[in-house]
Structure formats: C-alpha cells, structure tokens
Amino acid sequence: MGNGEKGRSFTSPHRVGTTIRIVARRFFTAGALLALVSSTALAQGSDPARLLSDLPGFDFSRLSTSAKKELVSVLTDEFDACGRPLTLMGSLKKGDACKHTKRLVGYAAFQASESAPATEILNALAKYNQTFSAKRTKFAIDERQCVGPKDAKVTLVEFSDFECPYCNAARPMLDEALKARPQTRLCFAPYPLPMHPNAIIAGQAALFARDQGKFIAMYNLLFDNQTSLSEGFIRQLVKKLGLDEKAFDKAVADKKYLDELNASKEQGKAGGVDSTPTVFVNGRKLTLTFSVETLMLGIDDELDWVAGNSSWNGN
After folding, report:
1. Taking a C-beta distance cutoff of 8 angstroms, is the pair 248, 256 a contact?
2. Residues in contact with 304: Cβ distance below 8 Å, sequence separation at least 6, in sequence order
3. Which of 75, 201, 221, 292 is most buried, judged by most C-beta within 10 A?
4. How far apart are CA 183 and CA 303, in angstroms?
5. Cα–Cα distance between 210 and 206 in angstroms, integer?
6. What's the domain count of the chain?
C-alpha cells in the first residue's frame, strides 16, 4: 500500500447477523439460514484448533492459538461466494469447495498469522468479492507501456510513481507474478504524486523514452536509481540510454507530456486510485494487501471468473 494522497479506511466490519441477512436474501431458504446459525453457534463454543484440524487440503497447525481463533471466526462468519448456502467452514468440510473459496481461505489464514483481527479480514474479503460484480474501469493505456502478450486473458494496469518507495518494492513482485502467470500482461500508468518533487519530470522522461522505443529501459533505470533522482540526474539517464538530450530538454520546456501525465492521473482517480501502487485486474481494483501471493490470487480468480462467464460456480 502506502504513500497515497489519502489513506484507505475500513467500512463497518461484518457481523454474524449481517452475514445471515445477506445469505437469507441470496438464497431465500430457512434451511440455509438455520445451517449458518448452527455453524456459527458451534464454532463459538468449540476449540478452534479442533475445528481447523480436519479441513481437507489445509494444514493450520503452525498458526498461533490467537490466529486460529480469528481464522475460525472468519470461516464461520463469511459465506461461500461460489453459489452455495454455506459458510466458508461448511464449504471446506464438504470437501468440494471451489478454487476461489480455497484461495480466500489461504489469504485469511495468512492475514490471521500476521495478527489481523477477524473483523478486518472479513471486511477485506467482502470488499474484494464485491469488485468482481462491480462496474469495471476501462483505461486508455499506450501499448508501448505494456509487457506481456497482447492477447493475454488478464491485463494488469499499475498506477505508479517513480519516487514512491512502495512502487519500487512492488516491481519485483509484479515481475514474479508475470513469470508465474505468463498469460498475463502488465501495463504501466504514471501517477505522479505532489509530495515527490521529481515525479513529474521522471514521468516525462519515461514517456519521452517510450516515443523512442525505450520505455521499459527508462522505467527500470528510474526505479533502479530512485533515491538519486533529480532533474540533472534524470538528464544523465536520458544520455545513458543514447537518447537526444536536447530533444528531451525541448520536450520538457514545451510541456509536451504534461497533459498526458495529468490525463493518466485523472483516469486513475476516476477508477478509485487513492494510493500508489494501485493495480487493476481487467479493470477491477485489487483491494487485497499487496504481495506476490495476492497478485496471483487476483489473476487466478479473474481467469476462473472469465471462464465461468462472470461466476465462480463449479470452478
């Protein structure tokens, strides 16, 4: 996360009653409602370690006692998103949970291991699931700012700032995710933040290099030298790439790329960017904590969602 123009805030956390109402509205069956109430009541009076010990495909033995307690709260409070009137716990116990459910359980377990409370995890899962059915954002991105196959089933759009340390930290994570999921394309969208004095001229340098066919090379040079960036140093990078320094100076003086940088930032804002880096998966904002694992989770879920015609049922 990090370094945003405004911070993210959590909405009201899920509670058992809220989840029950959601399930009731979705399935309209008294049986589903009774099953959820019974499952939750059972969990509240049972040993978390025992409840987690026999779930097919998972080994939670290394979680601390407190983490197990929070995870059980999540699994018995959140309902399965793959079309069944069951909690996550109930779906896992049946042994045929969909891949989406298993991925979210893995994410919940990791967050619990990092001392996240159940309410925070539940809110993150709900927010993430909602992004699939919400309206997707279409971004106007220059193809020369992309890596990966043009016919990729999944396109990641990353809004980033060359002076943002979190963006630099995200770079190897994105690289690893792309290697692990070769059917994915990544497109860079500049989002210069006002607190970074060299973000705009760095963005101009990247776009200038793009027009000379060297966008990725400049992208890497700017991040590799992030702590040394200044107007003079960026001109040295232009020279290092064998580009015309005088042409770059003229482009900066003429403000050739400022409108494009502003347009990129505005479309990011319109899509919900409030911090850098922010990644969109086929126009869907990735709301989970940024990591290699969540990037791949988002990609895999998107592939299943597309294959299922906007549904996870049966995947």
Report:
1. no
2. 99, 100, 312, 315
3. 75
4. 10
5. 6
6. 2
The pTM (predicted TM-score) of the whole model is 0.84
Above 60 in pLDDT, residue 11? no
Residues 139 and 145: beta-carbon distance below 8 Å: no
Residue 287 near residue 128, CB atoms below 8 Å: yes
Q: 16-27 vs 30-44: helix axis angle to the nearest 10?
A: 160
Cβ–Cβ contacts within 10 Å for residue 271, how many?
19
DSSP string computed for 243-278: --HHHHHHHHHTTTTHHHHHHHHHHHHHHT--SSSE
- pLDDT tens digits, 57-79: 899 999 999 999 999 999 999 99
260-309: pLDDT as tens digits: 999 999 999 999 999 999 999 999 999 999 999 999 999 999 999 999 88
CA angle 41, 95, 309 (to 5 degrees): 105
Q: Do residues 117 and 152 both lie within one domain?
A: no
Both tokens assigned to 122: 């539940």
Q: Give, as one character, the DSSP assignment of residue 143.
A: G
First to last CA, the chain: 30
E strands present in the chain = 146-147, 154-160, 184-190, 278-281, 284-285
Supply the range of the domain harboring residue 212.
Answer: 143-271
Tokens 């008294």 -> residue = 30
The dihedral formed by the CA atoms of 120, 126, 127 and 132, expressed in degrees to the nearest 10: 160
Rounding to the nearest 10 degrees, give the CA dihedral for residues 200, 201, 207, 212. Answer: 180
Residues 92, 161 share a domain: no
Same domain, 189 and 123: no
Coil, helix or strand at residue 287? coil
CATH of the domain at 163: 3.40.30.10
Q: Cβ(74)–Cβ(108) under 8 Å?
A: yes
Length of the chain in residues, anyone? 315
